[in-house]
Structure formats: C-alpha cells, structure tokens
Hints:
By secondary structure, this protein is mainly β.
Amino acid sequence: MRGVNRVMLIGNLGKDPDVQYLEGNIGVAKFPLATTETYKDRTGKLISQTEWHTVVLWRGLADLAQKYLHKGSLIYIEGRLRTRSWDDKEGVRKFATEVVADNLIMLDKRMDGGPGHGPHEGGIDGFNKDDVPPISESPGDLPF
Length: 144
C-alpha cells in the first residue's frame, strides 16, 4: 500500500523569509510559520495554542517569498513533511522536521486598496512550485 505525506497549513510568518541561492542559481527560502488553534476549556475560558513549523520553499516559490512575503504575512501552504538529520560539532545526532511546500496562497489583504488582483491580494492568486506569479488587472480573469 502506498502512503500519503500531505500537509495543509494556514498561518502567519514568524519572520521574513531567509532566501539563499544554491549552485545553478536555485533559490531556497526558509521561514517559521505559526498556526494557532483556539478552544474553550471546561470553564469556558478561551485557550490559544500555537504550533511553530519550519517551511521550506524551492525555486519559483522561493523567489515569490522573497518578493512578497514578510513577517506577519498570512498564507496557506500545501506540501509534505521531510525529516533531516546531521551530526553537530560534538558528534550528537540532530533531527529537524520541515514542511517542504509545493503550493502557496497569500491570504493578506491588498494594501493599496486599488482595483485588480495582483499577487498581494490573498485568496485569489495561488502559486505552485513551477509558477511565475501572474498579475491580472481585471476581476474577469477569476476562475470562479
């Protein structure tokens, strides 16, 4: 039987994306993403629980992150979990689990309030790892 490794998250960036370029000008962006769940306990008190996830974006999505995302940005991502391991300076085995995203939707509202549906308006423009961000000036270009 085949397995499924799929993650879907909506959250806020904990800091600006750290973008680096590997050999061959391949971009890779990394940033922490906070997801918060809120629930009521038995006494009716609201409790918030925040989880932090390390998100990794490659190639076109890394370029998109560098250009449009910043600390506090609200985004939706889809991807898969990947666990890496390495030995530190003292020879101790370390592990890190990351979300390698292959789809991204920016959910922030547009700042300039003008017409159009550019990449700053969330919930409309979704990008996957092979996309170059489209910029459309006509609301008629929406697929729904």
